[in-house]
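Page 47, continued from p. 46.
Same chain as before, 302 aa.
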Amino acid sequence: MWFILSLVTIMFWGGSDLFSKMGSKPTDKYSHWKIVIAVGTVMGLHATFELLTGTEFHPIDFIKYSPAIIFYVSSMILGYVGLRYIMLSVSSPICNSSGAVACILCLIFLRQMPDILSWIGIVLVCVGVVGLAFIEKKYDDEVHELASRPENKKFKSGFIAVFFPIFYCLLDGMGTFADALLLDKGYVNEDSANIAYEYTFFILAVIAFIYIYVIKREKPDRKWDTPKWLGACCETAGQFAYIYAIGDNPTVAAPMISAYCVFSVILSRIFLKEKLRAKHYLIICTVFLGIIMMGISEGLAE
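Result:
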C-alpha cells in the first residue's frame, strides 16, 4: 500500500510545488507567509473534518510528534522563502534529496534493510533527483537574466543559492527520519500525527494572518493568491497520503517520494511553457525506472 500512497503524494506535491511557484511574487517580502496562511487554513479545515468524523486525537500528541513537526515546519517555511529566489536556486530539486538523507538515517538507526530491487530503485531515484538539480543549475538562462537586473542585485549572492536547498534538504530529511522513528516505534499513530502537524500549521496561519493583514494592512491580490490556495489544497492532500506511506515503509518510501520534484518539473514545462531538454528526459526516465523497481519489489513482497 505504501507504493500507491507514495505515488499519490508525488502527484499532489508536484502540483503544490507548481502552484506555490506560480503564486510567489518575487517583489513581495511577505509571499512565504501568505503561502503559510493558505496552507495552514486548508490543513486546519482538514484536521477539523478528521476530528468531526471520529478520528482519535489527544493534545499530548502535539508533544509526542513535536520533533517531526519542528523539522517539517522549519523546512517548509524555508522552502517557501526560497521560492522568491527560484531563479537563483534553480537547483532546488536537490532539496528533495532529503529522501536519501532519511533513508540513510533509517538504515543506520532503524535497521530497515531493503531488498535488492528496492536498493536499485533508491539509487536510481537519488541519482535522478541530484542530477536534475545540476542540469537545472547549468542550463537555466533565467538565472543570469534575473541576477543582472539592478533591482535584484541581492539575488547574486551564492550563499542564497546554496543556503535554501541544502538546509531544506537537511531539515526535511531529519523530519522524515523523526517521522519514521515515531511512527515505527508506536509513539504516535498516523492519524494523530497528521492532525498535530496540520493544526500546528493552522496556528502559524492565524499568527501570519494577523501580522500581515491586520498589523501590516496588506491587501489581498487575487492574481497571486489564487495559485497559493490551489497549492495549499495539493499540499494537504499530499501530506495526508505521505504520513501513511512513511508509516508503512519509511526506508523506501522516503527516497521515492523525493521524486516529486521531477513531476513538478514536468508540470512546469506543460503549464509554464518551459522546454525540456534531452538530459531532462534522461533524468525523468531514470527516476521513473527507479519507481518501477520499487513497485515490482512491493508486488513481489505481497
